[in-house]
Amino acid sequence: MATRSDLWTTLTEPLIRQNPVTLQILGICSALAVTTSLATALTMSVSLTVVLTLSAVIISLIRRHIPDTIRLIVQIVIVASLVIVIDQVLQAFFAEISRALSIYVSLITTNCLVLGRTEAYARHHAPVPAAVDAFGNGLGYSLILLVIGGMRELFGRGQLFGWQALPLADAGGWFTPLSLMLLAPSAFFLLGGLVWAIRAMLPEQAEAPEHEPPADVRAAE
Amino acid sequence: MTDLWALFLSAAFVDNMPLTLFLGLCTFLALSKRPESAIGLGIAMTGVLGVTVPLNWLIYQGVLAPGAWAWAGLPELDLSYLALIAFIGVIAATVQVLEMLLDRFFPAIHSAFGVFLPLLTVQCAILAGSLFMVDRAYTLAESAVFGLGSGLGFAVAVVMLGALRTRLAYADLPAGLRGLGIAFVLTGLMSLGFASFAQMAVSQ
C-alpha cells in the first residue's frame, strides 16, 4: 500500500529530477511546435495532462484484462478516443486557440510521453499511483513548455499572455523584438540551453563521454 | 507536373518535418547517434510515409469525408472526427504488412533496418503526414508526392545530424551539454540553415 510520502515523491520526482522532456527525451515533438506564445503552450499543457492522467487511470483499471500481445493497440485506441474528445471540446469552446494549435492536438495520440507512461507505469500499478504519476509527468512537461513559451513570447514580441510586458521601440518604448525567437531554431537552442542548465545543477544526469582520450594524452595535459 | 515537383521540394526542404515543423523529433534524436542507423531510419520513414499518406487519402475520401456516404442515401453523414483512429489503424497495419513483406522477400533489407519499422507506428511525423493531407485538401497524386517528399526530407535531415554527431564524439564538451544538449543545439543550427530554403519558395 502506497503511503502519502510515496505518492508525494511520485508526484514531484518528474518535475525536474526525472523530467520527461529533458531527461527521458519523451514528447519533444509537440513541446517545441506550440511554444511560440504562452497561451498555446498553456492549452497544450492542459490538454496533454488531462489526456495523460485519464488514459493512465483507464489503462490501470483494466490492466488485468488486457492481453499482453495486443496491449499497444488497446492503449493507442484509448488515447486516441480521449484525444478526439479534447480536440472536439477545443474546437467548440476555444476556436481561435484550436486553429493556432492546428494538428498538434491530434498529435498527442502519438506523443511518446503518453504511451511511455502508460506502458512503463500505469500497466503495473493501481489507479491512484498511476494517476499521480501521470499527473506529475504532465506537470513536468507543462513546466518545460511554459518556460520555453514564456521566453519565446517575452523576447519575440515583448508580451506575456498577450499583455505588453516590455514597451516596444515602435511604440515609443525601448525594446526591439527579436524575431528569431518566433522561428523554429530558437526553440531548439532554448531547449538545449535548458537541458544544459538542469544537468549543470544535477551533474549525475550528465551523459558519460563516448570516447575517453588515451591515458598518455591526459597525462600530458 | 511542375506543381507536383514544387510540392515535392517544399515538403522535403521548406517544410522539413523535424527541422521546421518539429515532427518526429523523438526518433530523430534517439537514432541519430550513428549514420548507419540514421540511414536505416530515413529509408524506413520514406517508405512508410510514401505508402500511408495515399492509403489514408483513399480511406478518408471513400469512407470518412462529409458526404462520402451519399451513394447509400446518407448525404449528411460526416465521419471525419473518426479520422484519427482510422489513420492510426491504417498506419499500424501498413507497418506490420511492410515488415512481413520485407521479411519474406528481402530478408537482407529486413535485417538491416527492420528494427525501426515497429517504432514508426507511434511516430508523430507519420501521423502528421496524413493529418496534413486532410488539412490541406490534397488530391491523390499530390498526397503521394507529399508523402515521399516529406519522408525524403526527414531522411536527409537525420543522416546529416547522424554524421555531425559522429564527428562530435571526440569533442571535449562541457559535461552538461554532452549527448542530448548538444544534439538540440546542432538541430537548431541545421534548422537555421533549412530556414533559408523558405526564401527559395518565395522567389519561385
Automatic annotation (TrEMBL), chain A:
Superkingdom of the source species: Bacteria
Keyword Manganese: no
Keywords tagged on the record: Cell inner membrane, Cell membrane, Ion transport, Membrane, NAD, Nitrogen fixation, Sodium, Sodium transport, Translocase, Transmembrane, Transmembrane helix, Transport, Ubiquinone
InterPro entries referenced in this protein's UniProt entry, alphabetically: NqrD (IPR011292), NqrDE/RnfAE (IPR003667)
UniProt key word Metal-binding: no
Signal peptide: none
Membrane topology field: Multi-pass membrane protein
Coiled coil: none
Primary location: membrane
Subcellular location: Endomembrane system
Residue stretches spanning the membrane: 45-62, 74-94, 100-118, 130-151, 171-198
Alphabetized PANTHER family for the sequence: ELECTRON TRANSPORT COMPLEX PROTEIN RNFE, NA(+)-TRANSLOCATING NADH-QUINONE REDUCTASE SUBUNIT D
NCBIfam families: nqrD (TIGR01939), PRK09292.1 (NF006777), PRK12405.1 (NF009070)
Name recorded for this polypeptide: Na(+)-translocating NADH-quinone reductase subunit D
Organism: Marivita lacus
Lineage: Bacteria, Pseudomonadati, Pseudomonadota, Alphaproteobacteria, Rhodobacterales
Automatic annotation (TrEMBL), chain B:
Coiled coil: none
Native source organism of the sequence: Marivita lacus
Membrane disposition: Multi-pass membrane protein
Signal peptide coordinates: none
Name recorded for this polypeptide: Na(+)-translocating NADH-quinone reductase subunit E
Entry keyword set: Cell inner membrane, Cell membrane, Ion transport, Membrane, NAD, Nitrogen fixation, Sodium, Sodium transport, Translocase, Transmembrane, Transmembrane helix, Transport, Ubiquinone
Location(s) in or outside the cell: Endomembrane system
Superkingdom to which the source organism belongs: Bacteria
Classification via Pfam families: Rnf-Nqr
Transmembrane segments: 6-31, 38-59, 79-101, 113-132, 144-164, 176-198
Main location: membrane
